[in-house]
Structures are given as structure tokens and as C-alpha cells.
Amino acid sequence: MRIATLQFSAKLDLVEENIARADSLLASAPGSSLRNLDILVLPELAFTGYNYPSLPAITPYLEPPVRGPSTQWALRTASRLQCLVTVGYPELASRSPPSPYTLRPTMVELGPRRVDYYTLTAYNAVVTVNPRGEVVARYRKSNLYYTDEVWAQEGPEGFVAHDVTFGGKPNRLSSEEAVGETAAPDGQATTETIRTTFAICMDLNPHHFLPPSPTSPMSLVEHVLDTDSRLLILSTAWLTRLSSSALIESTRQPDM
């Protein structure tokens, strides 16, 4: 299986510029590195940037499920690269009662409309699409980091495993690691359906960083084991204490 990550530092609010940056990075990649990819994974909130101070601040950039600019970019890129694409985005889900983190009513612009942000429900979400233009998985972040809590709600579904079909290219997971495999004659492509869990950054940690207890929500690791997931795709706006110059000097070292 060939998995690529497109990790870059998105600039807050500059969606079109960040999309252009992603396209530029892919265009500059050696051709062999993008050949026969199975899945391309982008960060959480890939094109909006990450650190929003409030719900009003992020509201102009909330995207409707699977119809916003992030999903449309993923669909175009999946078709061009002939692989699955996972991208993180801030999801506008529905209207709801006020969040406990809001302080006062504020009217904000949402496209051509002005709405009271008390009525909005938003999630830190990821979507995965295939080259045929289909949405194969959606997920809303379960364990929120403190910077998420000022604008997002916890995903009500919790962790979810999806049976995701990867197809058309050789050198995948072994057949015993796949939920189901469609065989093909020699020289032709095969497809495999692999039990996959999608998660976002803070999901790696215990809920609210609290020690496990009998009443704690199921952890990500427990979910992966309980559902027999063979693949975990984690989208993250990874944090680092290193400066840009330090990262450039040690490009082969983990960003810790």
C-alpha cells in the first residue's frame, strides 16, 4: 500500500491561497512519488488553518458537508491522481442551542446571509473521497483539543470504522489483513476492502486528557481493536516547538 501525506503550514483564513499551495506542492513532487498512490492524507482544517479563537471567527469558513471547497478539491485531486483523498475541514452541520463556550450574541456573515452564531453547530471533520467522485467516509472529531472547544462540538457518532475499498494498484496489504479481496487475472488490478478507522489529532489522547475510568468514552486504541480495524488514518495539524530554520536543517527528523 502506498500512502502519501501532504503536510504544510496553512495560513489562517486564506483558503484559496492554501489550496494553491497544496496544488503547487503536489505539482513539484517527483512523478514517481505520486505514482500508484492508494491514499493521500491532508491535515485537519487543511485549507482554513487551525487556531481560531472563537466560533464567530471561523464561521465565514465553515463548509457544508461534502459540498464545500475542501471536498471539491479532494474530488478533483482524487480523480487526477487516481487515489483516495482524505482532507480535514470545518463542518457547518446544523442550527442548535448556544454552545457553553459562547459569551454573547454576534451576527456573522455566512455567504450571502447573516446569522446568529448561537444557532450554529460546527465540527472539526474529515472527508474521504475516491477517484469515481464518491464520498467513502466522513468523520467528526471526538476528542476536542482546547483550541477546538471554543467553536466545535464533539462528534456525536464517536469513533466509526468504515469498510473502504482500495483498488486498481498492486502491492497492497496482504490478503489476510483485508476484510475482502476481489481477485483478478495476472496483470490486472485487484481491489481490497479494508476495515479503516479515521481520526483527528487529539483523538490519540484520552478524552480531556483524563485517566481512563469505567465511565470514560472508548479510546481510539480500544475502538481500533474492538472493530478489528487494519488501517488507521489520522489527520492532524501537528504542533512543533521547532522554528522554521530548525526544521529546514533537520528535514529527516520527526517534528517533535
Question: Can you walk me through this structure?
Answer:
- There is one protein chain.
- The protein has 256 residues and is of the alpha/beta class.
- Helices cover 19% and strands 26% of the residues.
- It contains six helices and eleven strands.
- The chain has a five-stranded mixed sheet with strand order 1-2-3-6-7, covered by helices on one side. Strands 8, 9, 10 and 11 form a four-stranded mixed sheet that branches. The protein has a two-stranded antiparallel sheet with strand order 4-5.
- Helix 1 links the parallel strand 1 and strand 2.
- It is globular and about 50 Å long.
- About 12% of the residues have low confidence.
Largest sheet geometry: 5 strands, mixed
Placed side by side, the strands forming the largest sheet appear as 1-2-3-6-7
- The percent range for helix content is 10-25%
What is the end-to-end distance? 26 Å
| Structure annotation, total helices | 6
Class from helix and strand fractions: alpha/beta
- Estimate the mean pLDDT confidence: 83
Number of strands: 11
The fraction of residues in strands falls at 25-35%
Whole-number radius of gyration?
A: 19 Å
Reading the helices and strands in chain order gives EHEHHEEEEEHEEEHEH
Given the C-alpha coordinates, what overall shape results?
Answer: globular
- The oligomeric status of these chains comes to single chain
Stretches where pLDDT is under 50 for at least 5 consecutive residues are 96-109, 170-186
